[in-house]
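Appendix B.2, paired examples.
Example (i):
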Amino acid sequence: MNYKLKARKGGCLVTFVVIVLIIVAIVVGGVTYVLNKTPDEIGLGGVSLGNDTVDGVGLGNVKISELWNLAKSLTKNAYTLDGNNLPTNEDKAAADKTAEVWNLGKKGDDVYYGKLFVQLEPVCDNALLTLAKSNYTLPETQLAYMFNVALNQFYADSKVITDLAQTAGNESLSQIVAPLKILQTLDASVCRMHFVADGDDVVLKLAVSVDISDYTGEVSIPFVTLADIVYADIDIKVNLSDEGRLQGTFSSVSVNGNNRDVSLKVLDAVFKLIATENDEPLTTAQISGYATEVVSYLFSRIGRIQNIDTASGTVKLVSVAEYAYSK
């Protein structure tokens, strides 16, 4: 099956938000108690949303009050990502200093972390680099910064990097080009990577931003200004493969701090609305899987993951030889 997104995905998202706002405004203007009802309960399940309906995209059984809360959170200044575990300027400087010996070069004034995508050898296994160091224990905040810069540099140089992958015969990179391009279409950036212990499990809390500023100007709502950035907090249960690679399973998502079940239904509805005609729509779980693949790949370009320490918020990456010795 093909999975595609329309180029004007932001416009469709904004249109969807506007439709929700209009429906709620009509309802609130009539009877306030209806906010605790679902669209199905008040006969709105058949309301058209593009080529589909409220029921068709899976929102018929969601309380209108919850849709309203999510819609309100998408207005300007209504939501700000909390500052916990976000990369600081000190983290960025420390990451750049660490990467100085990785021979990544520069892209403008920034370290060219995008070069990690096309490295055939992980940093920890590169013979020219391992003379200096064959293992790194890196704070998750520094890794989030590195990976976000790499991702956005890929967006800027996607054709160059894709061509290099094909020329060099980098099969691993070739396999994640499609996920990378999906993230590029969504204009997704990594804001935070935070590993937490959850019983016997380890959960990666990945905060991602989507910039819709190019599209918000297309819509005019009296007394309402839509936000330029939308945030998704994605929880992914992770484990390590026998080769020290990160693997993950989507657990839940929250959009701008809203209820996770509602956020999941709304995001899946949005992906249905923006799917190219005759193509299978993407799901939030698939998008999260793509993000996990990209994060896992970037980890693998530094080294094998020997340990994720949730207490200190660090990840230890080592060479193949050191990883094998530790097993």
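Example (ii):
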Amino acid sequence: MSSDIVRRHKMAYKDHNGYLDETRMRIQGQSSIARDAENSAATKREKRDAVQKRIFAQHVLDTKGSFFPSIEEMKEAIAAPESSAAVQTRQNELKEKHKQDIQELYDYEAEQYLADAVDRYLSKDDMAPDPVIDSLYTSLRDPAHPFQTGSTSAWEAYRYAHLSAILPLQTLHTELAASELAQQRVKDSRFPDSLYRYRQIRNKETQLRIARFLAADKMTKERTMGEYGWAYRQVMTLETEYKENADFRTEVQERLRDLEATDPRRRATNK
């Protein structure tokens, strides 16, 4: 196998995920290392790949252009509340954009492959084959390994950029979701002081606890109040509503039946 085909790894890329940040290395006084990694003993294949990268970079600029948010957009981003739902929306947008970028990349690579195949066909003289020309063409274009093609390199760059953007959002989403859940549990553990707040309860276990309390006898209510630290003034409003509002009483009883019917612990007890 020709040495022009095999890509040799360079130690300058170690611990950099395969990418060199020329600006950072220049600041650190290591720009010569980056230049050496890119320019030392460049093979024909590497030079050809560099040209392909330049063409692809120009293609990206032509199709996507450059983007910088306006002052208004930056202000909106800063003012937007940081919630798990908002972060999830940003993740979904990034995933959709990445999907579109990859599809556009596939279309571009297919177009380039077709043009390359046509060039190869037109440049070959079947009447006077030249093994030297064929060998040169192969060394410049055919990959030594499927994962070393130019299209794979572009795909890896897209994927790396996507993961670099979305992984921090996934971590942030997990943290915010856990924090919001803890806050909701604290909120749900309090006895609702109005009918409106009762209907805002989302946790089914909390709904069942409140419904059981309202439908319980006096002794059970006192025991439950002591268990959860509820004061009389906290439960008085909803208790009065339950006694005087027939519609609300029916609503609680129906919810109690529905929740107990779907509670697996309740089903296990009834068996």
